[in-house]
């Protein structure tokens, strides 16, 4: 009995020590020594919920934002568009979070029934595509194509255009995703800056794999500096495809800024989590690269939020017939669900007021 009490007192003492190194909800106090964007813990907790919601299979619940995951910090979100690419088993949505004054774009990652095979494949993936207009920059063809060469890109760009007409041109854009969805989110954020001329773009991904080489990472960090890659403890996926020190320019290389979430505790008892904002290299040896990436469970849960589908399902569309009026299918069966938005364009409003005066 006495030994048990001493053990618990020891655990409590360790817990108090851990808390002394953390602040707020467990963010390690770090001073920024450069002009990088400041990491926002509360925003991260919000965006991880958006990244989780995109895994919802019932498109009716997702479109109406009534799903079980559509509460908490994302309550009140308005979905503008859902994109379901049956050919490639991809899903994404676009909507507006009025509390953040931002358009949110979320991409779904690999479904968990195939994630072990997908992880195995990542060990052998090669850099096989030159990124347009970026000398020496090479990327993973599969990740690039999943965003650029599917139903996703035109639907996402169209939804952004409609949202800006309704909510104003200066509204922020936040892009998020988990796993492969994080890779697509990165390419989307870069696309919006490079090809669409957007300025207020922030990207935050969870458990994202490497997507390009060092040259690509350098371009990306300059063009989309407001980017945070959240990695969780021993998550396997951020370690893939592998980084080889002996071929630094020819191998895959992460872009910054990584935020490493480390669970602290004993065995399966997590006493606290500490978020470390890593350096600006993208491959900080003191962050996730300091441990072996050997955990799938760490990949499927971030901040206690599940990042996977509720149940295993083939790539089929699940929704009620009443949603048909919002839906359009192409010849391949790919689906886009769109909500009509009222236009509040400044020039249109001015014209209406002038006509009323006359």
Automatic annotation (TrEMBL):
CDD domains linked to this entry: Lipase_3 (cd00519)
Superkingdom of this protein's organism: Eukaryota
Domain Fungal lipase-type intervals: 104-243
Pfam family, one: Lipase_3
One function term, GO molecular function aspect: hydrolase activity
Alphabetized InterPro entries for the sequence: AB_hydrolase_fold (IPR029058), Fungal_lipase-type (IPR002921), Sec_MonoDiacylglyc_Lipase (IPR051218)
Signal peptide: 1-24
Record keywords: Hydrolase, Signal
This protein's name: Fungal lipase-type domain-containing protein
The organism of origin for this protein: Eruca vesicaria subsp. sativa (Garden rocket)
């Amino acid at each position: 009995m006495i030994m048990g009490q001493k053990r618990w007192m020891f655990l409590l003492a360790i817990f108090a020590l851990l808390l002394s190194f953390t602040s707020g909800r467990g963010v390690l106090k770090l001073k920024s020594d450069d002009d990088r964007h400041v990491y926002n813990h509360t925003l991260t907790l919000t965006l991880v919920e958006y990244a989780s919601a995109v895994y919802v299979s019932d498109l009716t619940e997702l479109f109406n934002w009534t799903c079980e995951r559509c509460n908490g910090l994302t309550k009140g979100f308005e979905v503008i568009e859902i994109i379901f690419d049956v050919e490639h088993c991809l899903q994404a949505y676009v909507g507006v979070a009025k509390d953040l004054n931002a358009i949110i774009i979320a991409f779904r990652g690999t479904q968990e029934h195939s994630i072990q095979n997908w992880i195995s494949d990542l060990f052998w993936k090669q850099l096989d595509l030159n990124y347009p207009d970026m000398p020496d920059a090479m990327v993973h063809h599969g990740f690039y194509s999943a965003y650029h060469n599917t139903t996703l890109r035109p639907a996402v760009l169209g939804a952004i255009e409609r949202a800006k007409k309704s909510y104003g041109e200066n509204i922020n854009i936040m892009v998020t995703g988990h796993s492969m969805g994080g890779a697509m989110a990165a390419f989307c954020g870069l696309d919006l800056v490079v090809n669409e001329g957007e300025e207020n773009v922030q990207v935050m991904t969870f458990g994202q794999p490497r997507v390009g080489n060092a040259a690509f990472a350098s371009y990306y960090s300059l063009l989309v500096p407001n980017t945070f890659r959240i990695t969780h403890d021993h998550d396997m996926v951020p370690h893939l495809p592998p980084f080889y020190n002996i071929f630094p320019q020819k191998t895959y290389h992460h872009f910054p800024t990584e935020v490493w979430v480390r669970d602290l505790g004993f065995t399966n008892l997590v006493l606290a989590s500490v978020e470390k904002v890593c350096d600006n290299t993208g491959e900080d040896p003191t962050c996730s690269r300091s441990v072996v990436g050997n955990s799938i469970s760490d990949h499927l849960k971030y901040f206690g939020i599940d990042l996977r589908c509720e149940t295993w399902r083939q790539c089929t569309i699940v929704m009620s017939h009443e949603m048909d009026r919002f839906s359009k299918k192409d010849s391949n069966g790919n689906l886009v669900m769109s909500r009509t938005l009222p236009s509040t364009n400044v020039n249109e409003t001015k014209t209406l007021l002038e006509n009323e005066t006359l």
